[in-house]
Amino acid sequence: MSGWTLADLPSQAGRTAIVTGTGGLGLEDALALAGAGAEVIVAGRNPDKGAAALARIRQTVPGARVAFELLDLARLASVAAFAERMAGGRDRIDLLINNAAVMAPPTRQVSADGHELQFATNHLGHFALTARLLPLLRRADAPRIVSLSSVAARSGRLAFDDLQAERAYRPMAVYSQSKLACLMFALELQRRSDAAGWGLVSVAAHPGIARTDLLPNGAGPRSAAGLARSLLWFLFQPVAQGALPTLYAATAPAAKAGGYYGPVRLGETRGAPGPARIPVQALDEAAAARLWETSERLAGMRFPEAR
Questions:
Q1: Which three-class secondary structure state does DSSP give residue 64?
Q2: What's the pTM?
Q3: Nearest C-alpha neighbor of 262 from the set 205, 215, 217
């Protein structure tokens, strides 16, 4: 897989993909998949940004099969409604990319359901989305789910005694926890699929350090992180480059079930995609099982039981 680029992306003709997020990495994912022939559903909470994403894709890929669907990951009722619409109009989903994220708002915020916003959006909403789309995914010939983690997961810890950061809110620590949860979910999903015979390929990926709007949108453009994004732009690789590990995980035949992929250079911050180092805390299967059970309780729904 040395030097894997978009030129190596296999044909996606006949596949239906859902990508969460209307800008940044999600837009690059959707653009590449549409260019490879997939039918792509761009799912996000802002219809105006959704329309702009579709316009960009259609301008770049004439004849692209692409649509926008409303999805607010921080609102579990919206996740359920989205899944119901998918079930009502489609016979299968081949690919789900759990990409959308909130990063480091300076003060603690909560979702519509009362959960801390980063945990709710980055992990819990995608957990519930995957569960609700599982029947459609299982109808595909080779269903694949990609969950986006981050280099920040390396410093993440699951604070089960304060998972919602009610006692202590530190923006980046809470972000790191949410991204560790995304990685642990991807690994646990593969284990449970293998045990239950769901036939899924669950893969995790991270973009390194990419020039998206995640920092200024979350921490704010005048925050230290936001200013670093603006003034030290040369340290951030282009968004299209940052999307390559996700696209490799989503499409490459060599991407391994239960694998983790990211850029291979400079401490996994930039470069071509390759295997990423899994932080030791992400390999704690007991903690992953506890996170799964806690997520089911918080989301108010359950995955099917393993056989």
A1: coil
A2: 0.92
A3: 205
Q: What is the pLDDT of residue 265?
A: 82
What does the alpha-carbon distance between residue 136 and residue 92 come to, in Å, rounded to a whole number? 4
CA-based angle 155:157:161, to the nearest 5? Answer: 155
The Cα–Cα gap between 157 and 190 comes to 21
b/e code 276-307 from CB counts within 10 Å (16+ = b): bebbebbeeeebbeebbebbeebbeeebeeee
Cα–Cα distance for residue pair 271/45, rounded to 1 Å: 31
**Separation between Cα atoms, residue 22 and residue 16, nearest integer Å:** 17
Q: For the segment 24-41, what is each residue's pLDDT rounded down to a tens digit?
A: 999 999 999 999 999 999
Encoded amino acid at 188, one letter: E
Instruction: Determine which one of 175, 248, 260, 261 is catalytic.
Output: 175
3-state class (DSSP) for residue 113: coil
Q: Is 169 a catalytic residue?
A: no
